[in-house]
Amino acid sequence: MARLYPFRALRYDPARVNMEDVVTQPYDKITPAMQQHYYEASPYNLIRVILGKHEPGDTEAQDFLPHGEQARNVYTRAAETLREWRRDRVLAEESEPAVYGYSQTYTVPCEVPGTPETRERRGFIALGHLYDYADKVVYRHEQTFPKHKSDRLALFKATRAYCEQIYMLYSDPAFTAEKLIFGASGPGKDFSGMIGPDTAPADLAITDEYNVVHRVWKITDPNTINLLLTAMADKKLIIADGHHRYETSVAYAKERSAQLKLPFKQAIPGDEDSSPSVIADGDTRSTLPVPAFPEAAMMMTFVNMDAPGITILPTHRVVHGLTSFSSPDFVTKASAFFNVKELPTPDLAALNATPGTAFLAATGDGNYLLTPKPDVIAAALKGISPRQAQLDVVQLHSIILDKLLGLDQDTITRLGNVRYIREADEATALVASGDADIAFLIKPITLDQLRDISLSGDVMPQKSTDFYPKLLSGLAIYALD
Questions:
Q1: From CA 428, how far away is CA 318, in angstroms rounded?
Q2: Residue 304 phi, psi (nearest 5)
Q3: Does a cis peptide bond (omega within 30 degrees of 0) precede residue 469?
Q4: Which is it for strands 297-304 and 166-170: parallel, antiparallel or unpaired?
Q5: How many Cα atoms occupy the beta-carbon half-sphere of 145 within 13 Å?
Q6: How far apart are CA 190 and CA 183, in angstroms?
Q7: Contacts of residue 375, Cβ cutoff 8 Å, sequence gap at least 6
Q8: Chain centroid offset of residue 370 CA
Q9: Distance (Å, rounded) from C-alpha 77 to C-alpha 49?
Q10: Whether the predicted pLDDT of 173 surpasses 70
């Protein structure tokens, strides 16, 4: 059972800032060039909190300092910045608890066959209770790495705020949440899977740098909120984006529960004394649930897997820094596991037209379409579950990167010689310029594959999915204090 909560969000005051100048893409999608652009866009851009710049003389987060000496680093500056913006009312807390309808209208990138196509993805922003994976409420689909989690934990502890959302998927063929939020009684005219005019204007509308239109509606009616939370109580949640932030938030919740002498699982449905705390809301005296302690929940956006509008893009792999890489040698080795067909160009159309598992390998000497030899692949991956073994990305990592190129996950993490790139043209250009040895173009994971892998308890390699578009950071902030 999933427990959700409304919250009094910190939100930018549109009278003080131009909203399009202060929001950002998620921190892990921000390149150095994007970071600089955000810095220049506005002195109130959220980049200063979620991904600040390092400065000479910065201390490390865990450094021991002499008595009286203050730490100075990206995390302390982020906390100072957030305090200043709250003090100056650039960021102000909402007057009443709410959940937020969230719509993203976008053109599907050309990486997806049959596009361009305009789609709309709808969901809502609320707090979600933090669970261990063992509780079988929240499920992951990707591996995580300690370095990324330690960075986010230092930021969370310093700022005492969650500025970015976890992107959560759930299944509801009846579209219960959509009807409550976007139906006749909510901001949307109707939920039929089609983009159309809304009967109530959005509280906020922003167009980002990818021409994605983000719209937000604030829902404060206690009865609507309680109906929504009740409808979500029996849902299993799958992390689409934000694995590192989710696991970091769970670790922080456990740490704080120990400090507060409150059991971490106190608010899990089914446990003894697990009833949620409640707050009275205005004159209605309707009760709305709140977390047992602030760190027990994290800000999330919930999207129905059964609704239209979800797009998963492929994430291509580009390998550089290999010792004495030889295209003919690679083809010879690959032929033991795959059928290899040479192509005149690294054409995504040829890849997408190939049924089943397939990769396109682009080298300086030629381009090759690889399709698996089923019996050979099955023998090579006999220690891997059948659900995983049939995935393109698993065969790429387990067979091609590991067995053929000697790049297991530990080596990739240590050497950093595999880049993950969305655009196929960018990936192949790195090979053509000599800046990479080989690029692997792959197909995207399907939503059904992700659902099956996650709910079975399996995980895929890092960067197996690229959900598009990303959730904007800065639409709402969950302050723990």
A1: 8
A2: -80, 120
A3: yes
A4: parallel
A5: 11
A6: 5
A7: none
A8: 30
A9: 8
A10: yes
* Average pLDDT of every residue of the chain: 88
pTM for the whole thing? 0.89
Cβ count near 67 (within 10 Å) = 4
| Residue 162 β-bridge partners | 478
Read off the pLDDT of residues 387-428 as tens digits, 9 standing for 90 and up: 888 899 999 999 999 999 999 888 887 878 999 998 999 999
Q: What is the pLDDT of residue 278?
A: 58
In this structure, which amino acid lies at residue 347? D
Q: Quick check: 60 and 73 in contact, CB under 8 A?
A: yes
Right CATH for 315-443 from 3.30.420, 3.40.1350, 3.30.1760, 3.30.70:
3.30.1760
Task: Give the per-residue SS3 of 304-346.
Answer: ECCCCCCEEECCEEEECCCCCCCHHHHHHHHCCCEEEEEECCC
64 pLDDT exceeds 70? Answer: no
Which ranges in the chain are annotated with CATH 3.30.1760?
Answer: 315-443
pLDDT in tens, 10-31: 999 999 999 999 999 999 999 9
Average pLDDT over residues 439-456: 94
Averaged over 320-340, what is the pLDDT? 95
Task: Provide the 8-state DSSP code for 285.
Answer: T
Beta strands in 307-447 (DSSP E): 311-313, 316-319, 338-343, 359-363, 367-372, 418-421, 438-442
The residues that bridge with 478 in the sheet, in sequence order, are: 162
Q: How confident is the model at residue 112 (pLDDT cuts 50, 70, 90)?
A: low
